[in-house]
Design a protein that fits this description.
The structure is a homodimer. The model of chain A has no long low-confidence stretch (mean pLDDT about 95). Chain A has helices spanning about 25-30, 85-90, 135-140, 170-175, 230-235; strands spanning about 70-75, 80, 95-100, 125-130, 150-160, 160-170, 185-190, 190, 200-205, 215-225, 235-240, 245-250, 255-260, 265, 270-275, 275-285, 290-295, 305, 310, 320-330, 330-340, 365-370. The first copy, chain A, contains five helices and 22 strands. At the A-B interface, helix 1, strand 5, strand 14 and strand 22 of A face helix 1, strand 5, strand 14 and strand 22 of B.
């Protein structure tokens, strides 16, 4: 009898009633990390604070010793292999983009889908520098029968019994689109990509959830059929069970988060403020359309008041800062904020459940204890 | 009736039998993070991969707008307040140091102390640049009656009911010592400190666990009594119950970790290798004395064989790389490694329990499934 991958690779499952986070979820939580929410203060997130999520291992790439190669092939007239030096010879484009994991909010669902257990912190904003994907594809000459463009990363593993390199596709119209304009990026915040963000090359698709942002990019392949790889059809779909085909996850649903005010208790993470004026601030974003408003509740979602929204400053694909003046009175409060976008999308007060735990953009609850001034 | 901090801040506790990781522990795990173990490959850990652990919030410091001030006072003849520019006018010292959280291994204890739930990954190695603490203290003129040197960070919170700025002390002999030589550091891997690593200033005490490495350092205070702050006497002690005084945690116990071979299953994190030659490598370190040997077991700790240890390369306080040639046969295996140091310290096969979950340096278990070659 041989040994098979399914000895270590099981189907998707949900946690039982009352089950805490298990060892496997903890192993993911210990290696990946979210944005510590106080870091919402930075317009651009320092790399070690930006959320990061890696399905398998972070590939070890030494571009000096073994030059990285990006192949562009399939249904193109001029297949090519590019090194990083050839990419940097194109005019550089830098774009500020807010990225979020589509599993953000998963650990707040009941029952909890067993996977990377995010609360609300799987987000970050960076200045990505690279070459527009559409420019590279134009140089390669996409054939008229192109349907999907497949992006292959160097990260390799097994998932639900399927051994794979991480692969995702974009419809050809999205890959060639200018709004948003996808980048093949080699820089983050003015420096080379850090290993966990895809060194030396990654895809950046503004407005889309993280599963589209293929890291350690080594191949771009144009195909004339719809891509049916694991990460396209088995994963990243909103479905109620494992039978349903489901809706693919694409753009980032709107979300507002606040910088938790005051100071925390180490263990409970509850926030403490002193009575009086407590300025609140946070960020809001949407991958569907520009954010047009943010509302704040200080009583657990019963009443809502308009926050002041800072100008977008030309950064369509980045979060916007908002501010709200709160006068805290002694007692216990639950703070929250919700974003609205120009297409009428907003955030629900309660999550809607799905098997993968995707796109849970329910309003954040921030419990605060207000004590008297000294 | 007023509201009090103990509404949100409770005593230390342990998890019940079979309790999974709770919401509070998950909130810590989602914001702090360990070293993804494949990053043991790097001699010097990129900042976003180096473990990080923050008790309260990461302070927001804008040294340009509001110049940071470090005060040196107490039992010194020449109290001073230094800015970062004055610190960088001293001759710079750069030292490669492996840091580890004393709570590393906590989540593997039974029962599990409820706190930051580390498995084995709370470690990292960086090149720290700064000014030797003993040089700053010599300039300040330490009085003859000095007992402890207290380091105060700008991070503020509540812990077990005690509101505090993070404060830890070193005995004056350790603060003035040359082996190890503590640094007031302003640089990490040739760049300013990232926010989560203490921007703009932090203490680095080679060989000691993380609780001594005070970040966001704003005051150094020499005192003529033993320091009795919360982080000195209430926390960071090895004890069996909350009554016992306990032994203070100081130096890093020896540990060897291996780069998990092959590739992972996304969810179970189990490793898969193909039958045949599988080179193993990892790192080993000890804060007590130089590492003198590493042994590897491929059968769950029954048999041990010597690994090949790379030279330390002049970096006494950094981890050392080791290598081991394994021939994998189809089936399930449990890999592990153990370090030995020059003072005879090593790693146990089973953890010894304490209430805080400190200094658990039991041998890592790495389950591997070996399948036939294709």
């Amino acid at each position: 009898m041989g040994h098979h991958l399914d000895e270590v690779s099981g189907p998707a499952r949900v946690a039982g009633p009352g089950d805490g986070i298990g060892r496997e979820e903890l192993a993911l939580a210990a290696r990946n990390h979210g944005l510590p929410l106080e870091a919402l203060r930075y317009d651009v997130t320092p790399p070690g604070l930006h959320y990061t999520h890696t399905h398998y291992d972070i590939p070890y790439a030494d571009d000096t010793r073994t030059p990285w190669q990006l192949s562009i092939g399939g249904r193109v007239r001029r297949p090519r292999v590019l090194g990083t030096a050839e990419l940097t010879s194109y005019p550089a484009v830098t774009r500020r983009v807010t990225m979020e994991c589509e599993g953000n909010g998963r650990a707040l669902l009941t029952p909890r889908p067993v996977s990377q257990p995010w609360l609300v912190e799987a987000v970050g904003t960076a200045e990505w520098t690279g070459v527009p994907l559409r420019v590279l594809l134009a140089d390669a000459g996409v054939e008229a029968d192109a349907v999907d463009v497949v992006f292959t990363g160097a990260d390799h593993g097994v998932e639900r019994g399927v051994e794979q390199d991480y692969q995702r596709a974009l419809p050809v119209a999205s890959a060639l689109g200018e709004n948003p304009e996808a980048l093949v990026a080699y820089g983050m915040n003015g420096a080379p990509l850090p290993p966990q963000h895809g060194f030396p090359l990654r895809l950046v698709v503004p407005g889309w959830y993280g599963m589209a942002q293929v890291k350690w990019l080594r191949a771009i392949t144009v195909i004339d059929i719809a891509f049916e790889g694991f990460q396209q059809v088995a994963a990243h779909r909103v479905r109620q069970d494992g039978v349903e085909e489901g809706e693919p996850v694409t753009r980032i649903a709107p979300r507002a988060l606040l910088v938790p005010p005051g100071f925390p208790d180490f263990m409970s993470r509850a926030r403490v403020v002193r009575a009086g004026a407590v300025p609140l601030e946070g960020r809001a974003w949407s991958g569907w359309a520009p954010v047009t408003g943010v509302e704040v509740s200080t009583d657990g979602g019963r009443e809502w008041r308009e926050a002041e929204l800072e100008p977008a400053g030309g950064h369509r694909w980045a979060w916007r800062r908002w501010r709200f003046g709160w006068t805290a009175e002694p007692g216990r409060h639950t703070l929250g904020a919700r974003a609205f976008d120009a297409e009428g999308h907003t955030q629900p007060l309660r999550p809607s459940w799905n098997l993968g735990g995707f796109v849970n953009n329910a309003v954040q609850d921030v419990p605060v204890l207000c004590v008297e001034r000294d």
